[in-house]
Write a structure and sequence with these properties.
It contains 10 helices and 19 strands. With about 450 residues, it is α+β, with helices and mostly antiparallel strands. Strands 10, 11, 12, 14, 15 and 18 form a 6-stranded antiparallel beta sheet that branches. A hairpin with a 4-residue loop joins strand 4 and strand 5. Helix 1 crosses helix 4, helix 1 crosses helix 6 and helix 1 packs across helix 9. The longest helix has 26 residues. It starts with about 25 loop residues before the first helix and ends with a strand. The N terminus is likely disordered.
Length: about 450
């Protein structure tokens, strides 16, 4: 971000004071890059937990909501969802008191995880196979205003620096026949207020009305974006490392709970819109230079505040391209934005092959998958066989190459009956793919293992 100047003018001598200078587009560019993950995160959480009329609604805040199926093209709230693990969702409103989150024992060999995400989209904690093991336990999730002591029976305290947080549960599914087992595990995911856990009187109830967010398209250009951001700042106390940054935004009129867009004059609105446009130009340049070339990957864009180091463009890029990605220790996401020749991929014109050598499958402790996403929506793509990915649970059914390797055929039309087991259907247009590696082994984490390229097939 740019430096934190006040952006005010001053009069001289006995002259009348000059009017305060209008904030420049630069500050709005910086505030947009900073705030986009928060605003988009809130859009999703509002659709899931606050707006009962939304088709994506899961249920009220502070309750676990289980989905005993994998995602399909009909699920449109989250960009680049996985289609490997049935999800459970918890929207945590921590203003009133902490929550006690309990998990059951999960049989060894089955991966599961709880990913704790604050309003900024930092991954601040994990529970599950990698982080805490498959044993049962209870954990205390506390917001920034709580300073109490954990009662007996709590394994650890997990602290969110924002009052609103999201917990994403993932439970590994082995096959369609395995769904009843997943449902049993999901039924053991419970949450209760701390007062209910301790049998004490609850704090005074709070209001449950939440500001309506902007839609996906509107938040890309509307000055009202900053009304939503100012609203969200009420739930996000200023971090000690961001005092100057947040002060600069306040000087530009983006202040917790204060209306923004309605106070703009024509010149101010022009500066805001120019700043938003600059933010998207910078994002597109960052994506082309850093993401598409592989200089920065998902491993660099998801994690704790300390890991990200206040790299706000990395945080925005991650939210745009795949919000709620895991930290690299939990999962890696090697992406295919271009083919082996550096060209964008398009199912209407080309066919592709991704070949894993006989010893070249992704080294993981849990599982891997290669998932297809259509552009520009970054959503799962409908196809005649309802197949959205190839994953490690399908290995027994995949056709092996003569040397024991596996070639995945990525194309719009079927590659023929003999190859159809290895067919990953592509849309009739541009697309990208993500290779997910859950609980990656050391060879993936240190870069020893390299993902195979997507090679254009000319035959």
């Amino acid at each position: 971000m740019a430096g934190c100047g006040s952006g005010t003018g001053s009069g001289g001598g006995d002259a009348a004071p000059a009017a305060a200078a209008q904030p420049s587009p630069e500050v709005f560019r910086d505030a947009y890059v900073y705030g986009y993950p928060m605003v988009d995160n809130y859009r999703v959480m509002h659709s899931y937990f606050a707006d009962s009329d939304n088709p994506e609604y899961k249920g009220p805040w502070n309750q676990v909501h289980n989905i005993a199926r994998v995602y399909t093209p009909e699920d449109k709230a989250i960009q680049t969802p996985n289609s490997d693990t049935p999800y459970s969702f918890l929207g945590a409103d921590l203003r009133r008191e902490p929550l006690v989150i309990s998990v059951p024992g999960v049989a060894g060999g089955r991966y599961y995880s709880l990913q704790f995400i604050d309003l900024y989209t930092h991954n601040f904690a994990y529970v599950g196979s990698r982080a805490t093991g498959n044993g049962a336990g209870s954990y205390l999730l506390a917001g920034p205003g709580w300073d109490g002591e954990a009662p007996e029976g709590i394994r650890s305290v997990l602290r969110s620096e924002t009052d609103l947080a999201l917990v994403l549960y993932r439970t590994q599914l082995f096959s369609n026949d395995d769904l009843p087992e997943v449902e049993k595990i999901q039924a053991g995911f419970t949450v209760q207020p701390l007062s209910a856990f301790t049998g004490t009187a609850p704090p005074q109830a709070l209001g449950t009305e939440f500001m309506r967010p902007l839609g996906v398209d509107a938040q890309k250009s509307s000055a009202e974006f900053f009304d939503v951001l100012a609203y969200l700042f009420q739930f996000a106390p200023v971090h000690p490392g961001e005092v100057d940054v947040r002060s600069r935004f306040e000087e530009a009129g983006i202040s917790p709970g204060r209306p923004f867009a309605s106070a703009l004059d024509a010149q101010g609105r022009e500066a805001v819109e120019a700043g938003i446009a600059d933010a998207w130009d910078d994002f597109n340049a960052y994506k082309a230079e850093m993401v598409d070339t592989g200089k920065r990957s998902a491993a660099d864009g998801f994690g704790t505040r300390e890991f990200l180091g206040n790299d706000y463009m990395a945080r925005m890029s991650s939210a745009v391209l795949g919000i709620y990605g895991n930290s690299k220790e939990e999962a890696l996401y090697p992406a295919y934005f271009v083919d082996a020749d550096g060209a964008p991929m398009d199912g209407s014109r080309n066919r592709y092959a991704v070949r894993f050598g006989p010893d070249g499958l992704p080294p993981v402790n849990a599982f891997w998958s290669l998932t297809m996403y259509e552009l520009p929506a970054s959503l799962l793509t409908a196809n005649p066989i309802d197949r959205y990915l190839i994953n490690s649970t399908m290995l027994a059914d995949l056709v092996r190459d003569p040397d024991g390797g596996i070639t995945i055929h990525v194309q719009k039309e079927s590659p023929g009956a003999a190859r159809e087991a290895n067919w990953l259907p592509a849309p009739d247009g541009p697309f990208f793919m993500i290779l997910r590696a859950y609980w990656p082994d050391g060879d993936m984490l240190d870069g020893t293992w390299k993902q195979p390229a997507a090679v254009r097939v000319e035959e």
